[in-house]
Amino acid sequence: MTGWLAEVRSGFAQLSPAVFPYRQFAFALLLGIAGGAVFYWLRLPLPWMLGAMTVCTVAALARAPVAAPGVIRSPMSAIIGVMLGSGFSPSIVWQLPQWLVPLAGLVLFMTACGLTVVWYYRRIGGYDWVTSFFSGMPGGLVEMVIYGEERGGDARVIALVHSARILLVVLTLPFVIQFSQGIRLDRPAGGVSVFDAPLTAELWLVVCGFAGAFLGHVLRLPAKTLLGCMIASAAVHISGLSDFKPPFEIVNAAQLVLGVAIGCRFAGTASRVVWRVLALSVGSTAILLFWMTLFAVTVSHISGFSAVTLILAYSPGGLTEMALIAVALHAEVAFVAAFHIIRVFLTMIAAPLAFRWLGHGRVT
Known about the structure:
Helix content: over 70%
Number of strands: 0
Oligomer: single chain
């Protein structure tokens, strides 16, 4: 408890005007709102997140004075986590045995992605073995940066590669789904309006947010705020205590800020480095999407799950972003979220073991 309270106090300290770049963040937020409004007007998928992400990415690459420090992500991740947890229900327990075939497909998919993308960054990108290996792993941005840096890799490149992977997948996959399936993804991802929702919805949101943040800290979960809040919310819904949904205005605001944060990741990095990583990431993302489509369609024929649901579950994009698309599609949010959590955990466990087995300290 003491450690968590210290972390909370540290978070508030980072919001001090002496530390937090309020002007740059306010400018990025205004750009994000403008981008979200344009995407919403054009009826493009996930407008508030993708619109903000697109505009802020362009602004960051153009060296505009934008910034979105990591401290702002936690409260937004808590809101999204609570919303994702509201997609769980008591019936989810009985569906678990049906997940065995898709899980086997996920393991094979991750293996194929890892082997081919690592080779791509080593031979086509020309990066050293350690940097190529941890850049090519299908998930876990923070974990792969830490693992790679500890073993002598270029942490900056690894972070940029994974950021670019998420950016490119999130910017392409919703459009592919929307236009190929004829499904609109510009609908609100949350529940009812804040003006119509009962007060208990906001109360449950706050309770699950604080309880989930504490749970994530205690369990030392990856993406601890997001996953902790999702678990807390899921427990409330599975137990039948409540079936509340966070108001969609709050969810859209969280998407907007997260989109700004993703776009601003490229701020402050040399343009030459960013453009080279983005160019290489186009090729690696194509490889990932090829394997994703192949395994999703194949497993769909075997398991009976829809190909779109499996595409979202296998997608090498971020948990938050893919789960939001699942919400917009009215797909199985619990299934999609669970598979992304499993992918991150498997990558965290398997990556260092595979690195050691393939040749720890290798330089060629």
